[in-house]
Every structure is written in C-alpha cells, then in structure tokens.
Design brief:
elongated
C-alpha cells in the first residue's frame, strides 16, 4: 500500500494482504539473478494470450465501478475533514479522484501503459494534493495496476524494466515525504527527548520503519501475486498442450492399431481369394477334361466350384464387413461408423464456421466478396477444399506462431475475365486471404511443412501464393486459384455459399492486388 508518513488530520487506511503460494523452485545450478529472471519468465518463449473482448469489456465496467467508488470516497473524505487544508476547488478534487481510476479501463489490453499512467498520476497528486492519494479506491487501484502489469505483460523483459522503475520512483517519493512532510515535524515536536517517547524506539524512526515495511509488503505483494498468476497461466497452458499431445498420440496409436488390423484383414482376404480361386480354376479344368467321358465326375467338379465360390464370397463379405465396421479413428468392432467419417469434405460454405470457432481468444472476422453474386457456387469442390485447408492452416499458424490479437479471413470469387492478367485467370479466380495484426512469436518458427503444403495445393490448381509479413504490420497468407470455364448448361440462379452467423459479411468486390507466383519451397521469412 502506498502510504506516506502520517499526517495529524488523516487516518491511514488499512493494508491489504495477499496470500500467495511459493514459486516453483528453479534449477539449482543457476545463480540468484538467473533464478529471478527465470521465475519472471524473461527468456520464456511463451506469451500470455490476450484476454479477449469479454475480459476487456469487464475491465471497462471495473473502471466505471472504481470511478463511482472514488467519487463516493471523495465525499466521505471531505466529510471526515481530509480536505480542510486543500486550497484547490472542490470540483477539481472530485475530478482528480475520478480521473485517477480511468486507466483501469484498459488494464489488460495495455497493462504497462496503464501502470505508467496510474503511477505517474499518483506521483503528480502526491506532489500537489497528497490528501487524494490516501483514498481507499486509489490505494486499491495502485495495487491492481501493478498486479495486472506483472500478470498480463506480454514482453517480460519490458515488464521487469517498467515495474522496477515505477517501484523505485515510488520509494524515492516516500523517502522524500519522510524528510519534508509536516506530520514528521509534529512527531518531533511532540516527543522532543527520549524521556517523552511512549515506547523504547524513537517515534520518528518507528514511524519510518512502519511505513517502509507496509509499502514493501504492498508493492512486493502485488508483484509476487501477479507473477504467480502469470506462472499459473503458463502451467495451465502447458498442461493443456500436453493434454492435446497425449490425445493426439492416443489417436495415432489407435489409428496404427486400426491400420495393422486392416493389413491383417487384407492378408486374410488375399489368402481367401487366392485359395478359392485356385480351387475353382483346378476344378473347372478337371470338369472340362471329363465332361464328355464322365459327366458324373464333371458334375462333382461343378459342385465343388459352386461350393468354393459361395464360401469365398461369404468369407470376403465377412472380411469387408469387418473393414466397414471400423470407423476412422474409432475402435475396431464398434457398431456402425462414426457419422463424421461419412460427412462430406469441407468447402467454401464451411469457412464461416471455421472463422467463428474458438481460436484461443483471437478476435476473428469473415468476409465474402462475390462478383457477380452467387459466383461462389461455381467453385469446384476440390478447389473449395484446397481453399478451406489453406485458411485452416493459416489460422492454426496465427494461433501457434503469432502474437496477433485479431485475424480476418476473406473469400473472394470473381468471374470477371479482365480482373487479372494472365491466361490462367481468363475465367476469373477464387481467392482466400488470411490477415493478422501480430508479429512472429519467438521460438515458434515451426517446420514450414504447413506452408509447403499450401504451396503444393495451389500448384495442383495452377494457382499463385503470397505468404509473408505486410508492410503495414501483421502477416498475410493469400492463395488465388483460377476458375474453370463456366458450364453453359448450368443454371444462373445458384445460391452463393452463405455464411452462418453474424461473423459472415458479403461485400462488394474490391480491387484485386497482384500476387506473386507460387514457389516450390517456403521463403526464409515465411516459416510460420
């Protein structure tokens, strides 16, 4: 708690305590400074995911609630005589008390900026109207701002620098207040000699030590509590990633078992077919040779052929039925196939659902541009699947390898022969573009196989690809595929691929930008 030395007319607010657990012990081979840096996550590759729109909206409500609370506290403080010696007008006291809570409205969106504003505002008030700084809402706000900066800052090194400067400035201000504040002079005048001391310690020294201990507990509690929350969030994310990895490994093992079982069934099927067909061939040859001389023996051979063919068909039916009863990714012997395994391949109509899915707090928007309206219905299914997989891979890269807060998926289908230069686009084009506002996350460059797959899909359809950072910031993945010649027998009233939900947006066609041709391998800067 930021507490200045005692004033004769003001009662000091109580100190809040934080119950925080012990941090995880770092490796014993590190020095003290290295352990602290490791505990603060300075060199960690993980960055805490932004809280999202709902959390930002809750911060706005929190800031509004603190503003009301601060206005009420100013009135209560005025009634208790806090501002009797304040020469500034009362409306300014109210305005400053309420304005000090405004940075809480974006405390998780811009945690370090909010911290600097809060503590800069506090320092200005402390030097001009110190009575306002002791109000309870502002005392709580100082703690919350410091806690949030440590818990939500994405750049841990910048967080450590900013927090250290703010805390150092606060303690410098406290030491200065100890030296010049009138309350200290009152203590010295009231207890001039050791005989007048009410206890064993000098009252001035006792007051200074008490305020120092309280402020160390206040600032230290905010820093430790915020860092513990950041560490807990990182552990939760690691556990979630490990859970996903275990599930994928389990699914892979299941798939391997299914493949092994199917191979065994295929071998049995081969043996069944080879055995029965061989018997049928031998008996057919025998029947042909004795048909004229011994019809009875020829009839026996034909009976054997009939029996072997029936047995072979029955055994093949059983084996094929066993294969059909094993769903993709499901256990062998389950009754019926998984309905998802019989679902059609995704296409352009599934892009809105892909965009609207949960992307770890990422704000996503889908836009669909068609010229003429309904042109998306002319996109062949294999081309639609390639565009869908491109958007799917690009969105996965944004989640895993980018610090982006928002991403936009745009589908463009243009049937204008003159929209682009090049013989492959003489009948128009279909394009999907994924834009984000982030930067590459350190330590998550990836293998580049996903982008290589995007290029290979585009090359299959004689398309072109643009992958890389944008000049205005962010990252772009764009794939443009040429449309085939329109079918003259197809009706013109086909419905366009529509988007489900409010995230879909159909816009007029925008000017088309040139796109670089597809390369066989990913460039060094496009490895996400």
């Amino acid at each position: 708690m930021v507490i200045a030395p005692a004033q004769p007319t003001a009662r000091q607010p109580d100190t809040e305590r934080s119950d925080v657990g012990r941090p995880i012990a770092p490796r014993s081979d590190l020095g003290l400074a290295a352990r602290l840096l490791d505990w603060f996550g300075v060199d960690s590759d993980w960055e805490r995911v932004p809280a999202g729109r709902d959390a930002y909206r809750r911060d706005l409500w929190l800031g509004a609630g603190f503003a009301v609370f601060s206005a009420v506290s100013v009135e209560l403080g005025r009634s208790m005589g806090f501002f009797e010696n304040v020469r500034e007008p009362l409306w300014l006291v109210y305005l400053l008390g309420v304005a000090g809570t405004v940075p809480l409205a974006w405390r998780r969106r811009y945690p370090l900026v909010s911290l600097v504003l809060v503590y800069g505002f506090f320092l200005g008030l402390g030097l001009t109207i110190p009575a306002i700084t002791v109000l309870m809402p502002l005392q709580v706000m100082y703690f919350v701002a410091l806690f949030t900066a440590v818990a939500w800052a994405r750049d841990r090194r910048a967080m450590l620098v900013v927090v250290s400067i703010c805390v150092l400035v606060m303690f410098t201000w406290l030491i200065w207040m100890f030296a010049v504040q009138q309350g200290i002079e009152t203590i010295l005048d009231e207890y001039p000699t050791p005989a007048d001391w009410p206890g064993l310690i000098d009252p001035y020294l006792a007051s200074s030590a008490y305020q120092l201990i309280m402020n160390i507990a206040y600032f230290g509690g905010a820093v430790v509590a915020g860092q513990m929350q950041w560490n807990a969030a990182r552990r939760r994310r690691q556990l979630a990633d490990q859970t996903v990895t275990i599930e994928r490994q389990g699914a892979a093992l299941t798939d391997q078992a299914i493949v092994a079982e199917r191979l065994r069934i295929a071998r049995e099927l081969h043996d069944v077919v080879a055995h029965h067909v061989s018997v049928i061939g031998i008996q057919a040859a025998a029947a042909r040779r004795v048909l004229d001389r011994d019809p009875a023996r020829a009839a026996e051979a034909l009976v054997t052929i009939e029996r072997e063919s029936r047995e072979g068909v029955a055994q093949m039916r059983n084996l094929v039925g066993t294969l059909r009863s094993v769903p993709d990714g499901g256990p062998a012997g389950s009754a019926g196939a998984d309905p998802a395994s019989r679902a059609p391949e995704p296409g352009l109509a599934d892009l809105p659902a892909l965009t609207a899915a949960d992307h770890d707090g990422l704000d996503t928007t889908f836009r669909q541009v068609e010229e003429p309206p309904g042109a998306a219905a002319d996109v062949p299914d294999p081309m639609g699947l390639s565009l869908y997989r491109t958007a799917q891979e690009a969105m996965a890269n944004v989640r895993k390898h980018s610090t982006a807060r928002s991403a936009t998926v745009t589908l463009r289908v243009v049937r204008d022969p003159g929209a682009l230069d090049g013989p492959q686009f003489e009948h128009g084009f279909a394009e999907v573009e994924v834009l984000d506002d982030g930067r590459p996350r350190r330590g998550t460059s990836g293998s580049g196989l996903g982008l290589l797959g995007i290029r290979e899909r585009a090359a299959t359809h004689q398309g072109v690809v643009e992958i890389g950072p944008r000049a205005t910031g962010g990252y772009r993945v764009r794939v443009r595929l040429p449309l085939p010649a329109p079918d003259p027998l197809a009706g013109s009233g086909a419905a366009p691929a529509t988007a489900e939900g409010p995230a879909a947006l159909v816009e007029p066609v925008a000017p088309v930008e040139p796109v670089a041709s597809a390369a066989p391998a990913a460039s060094p800067e496009a490895t996400r």
